[in-house]
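Could you help me review a protein record that somebody else here produced? This is what I was given.
***
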Amino acid sequence: MKTLRVIRTLFLALGILLPPVAQAQFIFTTNNGAITITGYVGTNTDISIPEYLNGWPVTGIATWAFYNPSVTSVTIPDSVTSIADAAFFDCSSLTNLTVGSGVADIGDWAFAFCPSLSSVNFRCDAPTLGSDVFYGSAAALFYLPGAVGWTTGIEGHPVALWNPPLPYSYATNYVQNVYGGPGPDEGLSLPETIAITGYTGSDTTLAIPAMINFLPVQAISYDAFYFSTNLTTVTMDDHLASIGASAFASCSSLMNITIPNGVISISNSAFSLCSQLRVITLDSGVTSIGNLIFEGCSNLTAINVDPENPAYSSVGGVLFDKNQTTLLAFPGGVSGNYTIPGSVTNIGTNAFYESVLSSVTIPDSVRVIGTAAFENCSSLTNITIPNSVNSIGCGAFYSCTNLASVTIGSGVTNIAGHAFASCTGLKTVYFLGNAPTLGGFYASSYVFPYSAIGYFLPGSNFIEYSDYNYGGLRLIPWPSPYPVIGNGQFANPCGEIEFDFVVYWATNRSIVIEAATNLANPVWTPVETDTLENGLVYFSDYRWTNHPNRFYRVTSP
């Protein structure tokens, strides 16, 4: 063994073993489209050897490649098939080692004189071993269920099945390589990963493991922790990349959770009905968030976002897109009044879902109110939609049961189906402009509750709705303390030119239309007496051309 050390020292002094190619921390050679790592020049103590370098698979580790006493942990990828003699010789700080599924041969003294090495985790069948592979260590060797060729003892080291009891069910994922480079760029496998699919434990505090069966835990799948009512605190490792739909739904005791930097996506309803969740923090890695991820989190007071996050931001605990033009989620535990910032142009889908706010002020910057944006906001009593808004999404205010009054601005051109349906307390809807188009299935019947009355201004096109049933509303002209005269058609059905106008006022009120030929000394003569039906009456005078001047007024008897 001393001879090996002397040879290694001599070769390093002469520079004989230094190959001409290096990338980042690894030195390597290329032969027939395969990489052999010949050296390590990095300073990390926890090493994961890459499966590909420059687009080529790493298949071998050369003699003396990791002669480095500072290394503490090494993961060898599935692409490696052979580990040469003394590859990790004298790594005195190495404590644990994971060997990939492709390794078939390990040379003499490959891990000799690694006195701190306590466990070696094999993901492969039993490889062919040289002599004294683990000389000078007390390592235990573990292999996975289903692996073949293993015996009860190797070189005096204990060998055991790696099958620790876990409170999880999980699935193994396999991903295809899409790495671009001078070598093959597709069809080659990347390392396998683990997705947690279920939880059978009863702990109150849980740290989701970074590794299961020597593979990184990268996903929490659909419903994995659904209804785990004992959980109060959950921590996650940075290996985690995605949190599936309803992953933690109905964890009714969950109070503390931080989304780590590794997480990229959070799917629909991931934390819905976590009624004790107070504050949640999204780290800088999250770039995709689904709908209703905090639905029913009735005590949530703040959704905080790391300032370095490229896709999202937070202001006062409210979740926005990065530019704060779309309001994405309002925490369900905040009550009282809220004024939406003037930068917002879009109130997103389900943004205020089940909010307990009693009042929301929408600024003139907003153009779109999204689908179900205020659905089930049972404490909301009134809302004014400014003239800047042009569309109101499907179910936008659905089942806001205490909403009594709505004012809809003149810019609204479309109201989708069910927008105000099931608003059982809604009594009045005021329209400041023309009648918006009603969209969606059964829009003519299921936009507003039948109990409400819609008021429109004189001169608007609401008079075209002859039955005065508009999306469930009963329409009448906007109440006024006095009659209001609006423009008419200026032609009768027979094509004769006539002078006409419309009088708007209270339904069933009687009026007298009077005329005079001058205003200097007017003599007002009654022309017609009418009763307003549905709040209006048409007046036409086809004899107006018989007079050089003709002036009209409306009085109430």
